[in-house]
Design a protein that fits this description.
Blueprint: H1 38-46, H2 55-72, E1 80-82, E2 89-91, H3 97-102, H4 111-141, H5 147-162
Antiparallel strand pairs: 1-2
Helix pairs in contact: 4-5
Length: 172
């Protein structure tokens, strides 16, 4: 990792950067924007004193709520429902209430499949961001790199930390 004479290291891991976001639930402080959902970032920008939760706390709360909901759903009639993704027949406790009530049989997905799909979508989004950043860093590392290459890399890194998209300002 390149280091300047001032001791500043370039191309550091964005997850290690300090930000100005604090989680109200787990009390972690100085977190970068990438630790929070876009909705939580928007809520904080609207009201600086708003209490926001990091992605980790939101996911654990959702898991606890799903477990509690699964215990509440009564399987009195013993009816089995088929998941359209994994094709496994499961009791009502394997599905959310919304999936059971409003979805047709060919669109019904069990909780396991929905969670896996959500995790896969999040992983794909993170991989896409990392690929774009890796390409920008590669362009900046070339001997013939221009100021625009360095500005693009800096804008992508700043977006990860702050959650704000860069604005293009015209020259004239």
């Amino acid at each position: 990792m390149p280091t300047t004479a001032l001791g500043v290291s370039a191309n550091a891991d964005p997850s290690q950067w300090h930000g100005s976001f604090d989680c109200a639930q787990c009390s972690r402080t100085s977190l970068p924007a990438m630790e929070f959902s876009a909705k939580m970032q928007q809520k904080r920008r609207a009201d600086v004193r708003a209490s926001i939760k990091c992605k980790r706390c939101v996911e654990s709360a959702q898991a606890a709520e799903r477990a509690l909901s699964a215990m509440r759903i009564a399987d009195d009639d013993g009816t089995l429902y088929a998941c359209s993704v994994c094709k496994v027949e499961k009791p009502a406790s394997g599905f959310s209430r919304a999936q059971l009530n409003s979805k047709s049989a060919d669109a019904r997905r069990c909780s396991t499949c929905r969670d896996a799909e959500a995790a896969n979508a999040a992983t794909n989004a993170d991989a896409k961001v990392q690929a774009v950043l890796r390409d920008a860093r590669a362009a900046s590392a070339k001997a013939d790199a221009t100021l625009a290459d360095f500005a693009r890399e800096a804008a992508l890194e700043a977006e990860l930390v702050t959650g704000l998209k860069p604005k293009k300002i015209s020259g004239g």
